[in-house]
Amino acid sequence: MYYSMVFAAVILFCAPAYGEITQEEFCEKQGEVSQEASKMRIAGSDRDKTISALLEKYDHPGSGVTAHNIDGLVRVAYVAKLEPETMRDYVISECKKDIIN
User: Fold this and answer.
1) pLDDT digits over 55-74, tens only?
2) Which residues, other chains included, contact 92 with Cβ-Cβ below 8 Å and sequence gap of 6+?
3) What's the gap between Cα 10 and its chain centre?
């Protein structure tokens, strides 16, 4: 049940916002954002500060990442409580599954 909720959140909040990038690059960027969120969670940053920091870093035209994506990925990172590399790999694999389907 827990992992199905995490999976649903990844799919819901990671809806493609492609712009100038390929779907593969989009998945990689999503993984990068989720890895950063997980690192910040482990470092003790609260969710709002993490969202703000990641918005500054990633939410710009052409990046393929929107404020909606960042908010969702941070929420997933804080709920899943996975290590950064594991979180990145999980998000990328789920994103690629979504592309295939």
Assistant:
1) 999 988 877 888 999 999 99
2) 27, 28, 30, 31
3) 7
Task: Say which residue the tokens 């890895």 belong to.
Answer: 35
Residue 82 CB-density burial (10 A; 0-12 exposed, 13-18 middle, 19+ buried): buried
Asked if 67 and 3 count as a contact pair (C-beta separation under 8 A), the reply is no
Q: What is the pTM of this model?
A: 0.77
Structure tokens at 27: 């998945």
The DSSP symbol for 85 reads H
Rounded CA Rg of the chain:
12
Query: Positive or negative, the Cα torsion across 11, 90, 31, 9?
Result: positive
CA–CA dist 16, 98 (Å, integer): 10
Contact 38, 13 (CB under 8 A): no
